[in-house]
Every structure is written in structure tokens, then in C-alpha cells.
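Chapter review: from sequence to fold.
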Amino acid sequence: MKKLLFPLLLFSLNAFSASIVVDNPAALKAAVAKAKPGDVIYLKDQTWIDAGIQLQGKGTARQPISILPQTPGGVVFSGQSYIQLGGEHLLFKGFHFKQGYSPKREVISFRINNDVLASNCRVSNIVIEDYSQPERFKTDSWITLYGRHNRVDHSTFVNKLNAGPLIIAELDDERSQQNYHSIDSNYFKGRQRFGANGGETIRIGVARYSLSASRTRITGNYFERCNGEVEVVSIKSGENKVSFNTFYECEGGLVLRHGANNEVEGNLFLGNGKPFTGGVRVINPGQKVFNNVFYQLQGINFRATLAVMNGVPNSQLNRYFQVKDALIEKNSFINCASILFGTGKDAERTLGPDNVSFKRNLVVTASDQAYTDANNNGGIHFSENVLAADFKGKTPEGFSKIKLNTISIQGLELPYNAKYGADLKQLPFIRKEQTGAAWYKPSVTAPVRKPQHFAVTAAQAGSIPGLIRQSIAGDTLILAEEGIYKMTGELTINKPLVIMAATTLKNRPVLVNAGFKSLPAFICIENGGDLQVTGLSFKGTYQSYATADGGIRSTDLPMNRPYKLTIDNCEFSDYNESNNGAFRAGKSTFADSLVVSNSLFHHMSGAGLDLSAEKDDKGFYNAEYTIVRNCTFSNMLSGAINIYRGGNDESTLGPFVTIDHCTFNEVENREQGTVIKLVGAQQAAVTHCNFSQSGQGGRSIQFQEYRWDNILVDYCNFYESGKVESFYNKAMGSNNTFKK
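The C-alpha cell string follows.
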């Protein structure tokens, strides 16, 4: 008789549970409000557009109130849809968000308002993709956790484009502190370089509340190429645990930014030799980093495999507390670029790490240095660490050399020793197939047709705007003959296109404004656009018609996707106002790359290439890569190239600037003028260039760099031209010539 008791009890609990199908937000809200523990509410499989939904109810641990689609993934939230959860033991599972963005601060919020938070609630098996704000710097998050004991699991998140962490755990009042949230088993698929702070994938806490404990668990997730900024996971609170995750080719790392007594255990960091891939950065007291595997990570400085930072004396909450009493034990560092103690040491960050135990770690490196200590003040205690037997350098104190075995893990042959380094035989290395929403399959849209080539003559110039509107991604527009192409409006590019001269022409086709209203530019790149232009001439003035203020520009409208612009064998001339020029990047727009080659810029009053629109001094900039090769700039009133990144934010990699084999003749000779201005460019090289009678009233080249920036001027000739100016005077190579 006793054997029947448990089945009968289950039957009695479920007998009173109800299920209902709803097809609109009002019915859903009402159904959840009336729901009893164990009830299941199904949303009708359809696209729910502009659905702002508040779900408030009270289930129990054994019988949550479940909100589900009729079939997993069958409900798509689009437009300006968002979800707010409040109450206890709600399960929100199996939904798809795409083709929209939230009008609120969050797409999914674990609170309805300041009075109604969620606790013991779960968001599971969802997908959010193509759900970014249209404005790049409009900040939001996809999920924000409030309350306590909430969970986000087995979900897929694809390439958030706008500012703000993808997932946030807030600690802004006591009800959300010591919260024991769980973020587990999720697949974070990509995040492009954001070019500014605010591109984190996960942030736990914030500086203001960083002395509070969060106790969030981030475990069993897969992070694939999350490259938004230096902090992929940003811990800004105490007593969190980040364990058993895989970071795959991420240009950044796990950063213990604020807060104390956090643990980093059993994670796999796979760099695979990719540039800028990072590991763990340690700040603040009481941190533990143990039993992790770091494989072929190539980041340095703030992206180093292990970066233990210097602190700031009497630090404010938002700066850098000294690293104290840290344990770094039984980790495997395999063919990585940098283990750095004292990261960020400068005039402000003067407190070296103190009482840090680096113990029983395994280091395999082709370098002759096992690590770098920028302080050498005895704050790091090395003991029982091992190096591979073929280590080439001097064995440092606290290390010995041993012969290592290998073990195959996920197709990798990893050095292994049972006593030293990570427990490779025991670690549950996470594969992406184990994470994310099981039902999700990325959609593949078949093209309408194959990309085609369209040819136009000068007499058909009026048809160009229509051809561009009707084109598809990958089409090529060919200007088929020499001569004047009379334009009366700006060409808008919102898809990848090529505009080029016919390869048989001896002279470039010339674009002019033949209208009576000035054009902002001949071509404007809008959101979604990439452009390659080859063999064209952009002439700013023509007869008595209105001017074109620029050759090419990026839009002033909202943009969240990085664009690519390639200019080859083009000519830009006759821009006669100081704000006119060849190319201008708009504020809040971001180029993945601007590549200019074999082109001529002459007789203009404005800048040749102007990427200086981000003047807020918050570390923002207009292009990740700017490459200018084999170009000539001549007879220019303003500077040739102007790139600006203000502020001292350390979250980003760029701008990267390469200027090579270029000539600057009679460029920017005004008082205090500058031919090439590179403010805040973190990686910049000016090589094999000639400066002739340029910058005579000021500078040929101006840098405003920080001490860790990598800048170089070499193999350049300066004839009756201005000086090269940099803050630390480390830019000049040994192969430059200056002649009067």
C-alpha cells in the first residue's frame, strides 16, 4: 500500500493544474495573473508584434507557472516587444526574439517595476537574435536580472550590435544582492568589435555596488568570438563563481573588475593563436583562479592570458583596488603570449599586487620568459610550478622543468601532469553542442538571384539611383565610359555593392553635382552598407552648379552595423570649403575597415580622410582599421588624415592605422596645423612616406598616445616639413631623414 502513495500524491497535485492557449498580450497577462501553481499557459504559435508583456504570478518550486509556446520556437516576438517578469516561480521557455528591439532598458527584465521583482524565476530555451537598437550608442541589455535565485539557461544569443552588456545582474538594492542567480548552459554566438566601452557579454554588478556580494553562478556556457571589448565577462561584485565555461577565440577575457572573493574555476580558454585573445584579469582582494586551461592565447597587456593588475592608492570605487591575498593555482598555460603581473602600471596605478600565491601551475611557452613582473617587489609568491623540459630560458625561482605527457581533449593534444596544472582528466570541457536552445536552427535566406553587373554611360547617369535601389547585395555598377557623370542627388548604399569604372578606360569617369542644391556627398553609406569604389573621380565643384561637400561619407542616421569601405585608384579634388573633403565618417558610425589605395587627393580646403567625429572623449572612435597605401595628397589647406579617439578607456583595441608609401605635398601649412593627426590611435605606423613642404606651420605628424600604445614612424623623408610630435617621444624609428 505504501508503494502507491507517491504516484497518488503526484496525481492529486496535477489534477488541479490547468492549461490555456492565448493569442494576444492582454489575454496572456490576465491568464498569468489568475494562474495557480502548476498551470501552463500556451502562447499561440504566431508572430507577436510590438508585444509589451508583464507577467506577474506566484507558483511554487514543485509547481511553477509555465509560459510556453505551442511548439518550441513557434512564437516569434518582433517589432518593439519586451517581457517583464514579476513574482515567484515563473517559467518562461521556448521563445524567439528577432527583427526588432525593445523600447525599454531590457528585452527581458526580471522585474515589473521597483516594487515587483522576480525571485526563483527562470528564462530557458529562448533565442534572441537581430534584436539590437538601431542606434549604435543607444544602450540596453537583452536580459537584466533583479531579485534573487533567478536562472537564465539553455538559451542562444546572437551578435548584439548596440551598446550595453547582453546580460546584466543588477545589485541596486538589498533585494537584489546576495542573489544566487544562475547563468548556465547558454550559447553566446559572436559579438563584433564595438569600438567603445559597453560591449560586454555579461556584467555582474556595477562599481557603485561592488562592495556587495552577488553570489551569481556563471557555469557551463559557450562564448564564441565575443569580441565586443576587452571584458567578455565583467565581474563587478563579490563572491561570484565563474566555472566550467568555454571561451572560444574571444578577443578579450574574464575580468574580475570590481568586488572581492570571486572564484574562477575549470574554464577552457581557446585562443588557437588568434590575435588579442585573452584569459583572466585579476583586480581587488581575495580572488581565486584555479584549475583553468589557457590555450594559445595571444593577447598582451590588458588582454594578457593572466593579467594581475596594479592598483591605485586610495582608489575610488570605479578605479582599481589593489590585488591582495589572491590564489592562482593548478592552471595550465599552454603556448600563450603573456603572463603579466603588474598590468597597467603607470603614474596612477602604483600599488603592485601583494601576497599573491602562484602555485602548482603548468607553463608551456616558446618564449625564454615564463612570466613578466612589472614591479619585482616580492608581492608574488611562486612555488611548485613547472615548465616543460625544453624551456629555453633561465628557470625562475618557484619553477622546475619536467617532462610532460600529453592528453587528447576535444581534438587538442594538451600537455598534462597529474600533479601540476589543470585536472584535464576530470574537467567537463563544454562544447557548444551542449549549450543553447535545442530547437534553434539559424535561418538561411536564399538570394533572389545571383549578383550581376550593370553598365551605365555618362548620358545614363540619372538612372544610377534607381539601379542602386533595385540592386541586391554583391551587385556591381560599372561606369562604362569616360566623361562627366552629372548627379543631382546623393547615392545611398545600404547593402554590399561595388561601383567601378570599366577596366578598359584610360581616364577616370568624373562624378559632379549638376543640381542647384549642394550635396552632402556623392555617396552615403547607411546601415547595412558596404562599398568598394574603383577608378572614379569625385569633383567637388562643376561650372556654376552647386557644390558637393564631400566625396563619400557615412550616414548621420542611426547605424548599428559596422561597415567596410574600400577606395582604389580614385581621385578627389576641388572641395573649396573648410568643412568639405574626400571622406567623412559621421558620429556614432563605425567602420570595420577603411582601405584607401592608389588614390589622389588634391586642391581641397577640408580634410582628405576625416575620422574625428567622436569628440566625447569616452574612448569612442570611427574605424577599427584605417589603411592608406600608395596615395598622394597635394595642395590641401587642411590636414590629409585626421583620426581621433579621446579619453583613456582601456576596453578597446583600436584604432589600427597603417599609412604606407604615401606622398604629402604642400599640405596644411597653416600655423599650428597638422598633416596627419593621430589622436589616441593605439596601433599606428607611418612608413615609407614623403613629406614635402607640408606642415610647415606646425607638424607633419601628431600623436597623442598612452604609454602602452604601439606607434611608429620609420623610413620617411621630411623635406621642409613640420616636426613629428608624440607625448612619450617613442614614435621615431632610426631610418627617417629631415632636410631643409
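Two observations follow directly from the output. Residues 5-14 form the longest helix (10 residues). The chain has three domains: 37-434, 445-595, 607-740.
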